[in-house]
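Entry type: protein chain
Record version: 2
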Amino acid sequence: MNNSKWHVLLILIILLTFIISGCTSLGVNVWERDILASPHMKLEKNAIEREMDDHIYFSKEGSSGGRGFGGGGCGCN
């Protein structure tokens, strides 16, 4: 192989290394979970509106879950 092919191969290896290492820091660290769990980070601040949406979803889907409460689709909570 000539010199230019080695340079291209080296650049591709370096780029591949950067691309693969970019996925190593996905997720939330342990010390960041308290910040994300604060009430200011909730998607819906209005509790009444959230409860109404949950009731409608439960009535239509026949299941519960996804918001932190237990239950199954059988209706025997």
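Comment: The two ends are 69 Å apart (CA to CA).
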